[in-house]
Amino acid sequence: NIRVDGRGLSDIRPISCQANLHDHLHGSALFQRGQTQVMCTVALDSLHSAMKLDPMTVITGGLKEKNFLLHYEFPSYAIGEVGRGGAGANRREMGHGALAEKALKQVVPDNRQFTVRLTSEVLESNGSSSMASVCGGSL
User: Fold this and answer.
1) What pTM value is reported for the model?
2) CA-to-CA distance for 8 and 11, rounded, in angstroms?
């Protein structure tokens, strides 16, 4: 009755959280669960810096602009690979980022008078990096 990684069925991976790592930012956090590690930073800006959406998104989604933005970054070195450097986000990265953004948006007040830019960089991953981004982003 052990898992593939050697843990027992009732054993959990160790969790580590650190907040306010960089004084010059509005917020920062390092979240680690097992071998998955995510560094999150947040910056607040005026409503004028909200992301203006394209006309098709306005028609289909009803939003003209977004003032909560999650920049989810999953570089190839996070899983021990080489490649893709600077190639932009792939479908997996965009999907996981959208999933994490949707979860985090629920804890951000609707009536805020500023734009929130949250960056989540996966430093190492052995599973559930989008959930680690949610945990780090909520710190």
Assistant:
1) 0.79
2) 5
pLDDT of residue 87: 61
Q: Are 132 and 85 in contact (CB under 8 A)?
A: no
Judged by DSSP in three states, 93 sits in: helix
Other beta carbons less than 10 A from residue 67's beta carbon = 19
Picking from 30, 45, 35, the residue whose alpha carbon sits closest to that of residue 14 is 35
Name the pairing type of β-strands 68-73 and 51-52.
unpaired
| Helix or strand holding residue 119 (H, E) | strand 115-124
Q: CA-based Rg of the chain, rounded to a whole angstrom?
A: 17
Residue found under tokens 């969790």 = 15
Q: What is the pLDDT of residues 49-81, one digit of tens each?
A: 777 777 776 677 766 677 788 888 887 777 777
What is the tens place of the pLDDT at every residue in 109-122?
878 788 888 889 98
Number of other CB atoms surrounding residue 134 within 10 Å: 23
The enclosing H or E element of 38 equals: strand 36-45
Instruction: Confirm if 121 and 92 have CB atoms less than 8 A apart.
Output: no
